[in-house]
Amino acid sequence: MTTTTATEKGPKLICPECRRENEAARIFCHECGQRLDRSAIPAKQKPKTAEDERKRLQKMMEGPGKLRQNFFAVSKLALAAAVTAALVEIALPPDLPPPTKAIAPQMDLELESAATFHITGPFELPQEQVNAYLTSRLKTKKKIMDEPLLDFVRATAVFHAGTCTIGVERSLFGYSLFTQSSYRVESAGGKITVTNVGGWLGRLPVHPAIMKYGDIIFADLWFALDREHKLVAKMAGVSFHDGGVTITPPTH
């Protein structure tokens, strides 16, 4: 491999065969004719002038080009539009059952009787009666349900085939805010399995992966309905369908 050495007259090429020093301009060795490797010679750089330096500084001071400026402007506009659309969706009220005027059943006593084998065979609870029970039951739990700046208004249940959606309405300075969480309920071998399948903030859908952590929003509701939750967990089966739920008591 050809090497170089620095001298007062400039770099020299050393032949890899005979080790003779050759002028930097030579292609073949003056002594043995071996082709020299000129890649080791540094390329000559054009000296920078005052005009070159002025152009470099001017380019630095110009900032991003027009295309880049347009890209950032469009990106900011799109982000602002997305945030605005999300806030509008959150503010819009979802399609929830209207406040019911039905007489509240003694649902807790029915579940208690079913858990202690006083009821035989499955029994039906219509959605409207469940919502009437929630209204009556949670009136006495309002202090638990109220949050800082958020006053509890009501809780609702919506039943569809295989799923139960729980919604909570709260008031912020008189303006209603809605949150919902949907669950798939399955019964097998006397065991009830509940899986979160998503939720909503107003009308803005929330992915199930996020709702698994966001379900803490409903922690006060589950605390207020702890007795009912424990009674339902004792049942042999819970089957939701449009507008109602069928409960199968435990058997021995």
Provide a brief overview of the structure.
By secondary structure, the chain is α+β, with helices and mostly antiparallel strands. It has helices at 50-62, 66-91, 107-115, 127-139, 142-145, 208-214, 219-224, 226-233; strands at residues 3-7, 10-14, 21-23, 123-126, 151-160, 163-172, 175-188, 191-201, 204-206, 237-241, 244-248. Helix 3 (107-115) packs parallel to helix 8 (226-233).
Beta-sheet strand percentage? 25-35%
Order of helices and strands: EEEHHHEHHEEEEEHHHEE
State the major sheet.
Answer: 5 strands, antiparallel
Biggest sheet strand order reads 5-6-7-8-9
Oligomerization = single chain
Assign an overall shape. elongated
The Cα radius of gyration reads 39 Å
Mean pLDDT over the residues: 85
Give the low-confidence spans: none
Distance between the terminal alpha carbons, to the nearest Å? 92 Å
What does this structure look like?
By secondary structure, the chain is an alpha+beta fold. The chain has three domains: 3-40, no CATH class; 50-91, no CATH class; 107-248, no CATH class. The protein is 34% helix and 30% strand. The chain has helices at 50-62, 66-91, 107-115, 127-139, 142-145, 208-214, 219-224, 226-233; strands at 3-7, 10-14, 21-23, 123-126, 151-160, 163-172, 175-188, 191-201, 204-206, 237-241, 244-248. The strands form three sheets. Strands 5-6-7-8-9 form a five-stranded antiparallel beta sheet. A hairpin with a 2-residue loop joins strand 8 (191-201) and strand 9 (204-206). Helix 3 (107-115) packs parallel to helix 8 (226-233). The mean pLDDT is 85.
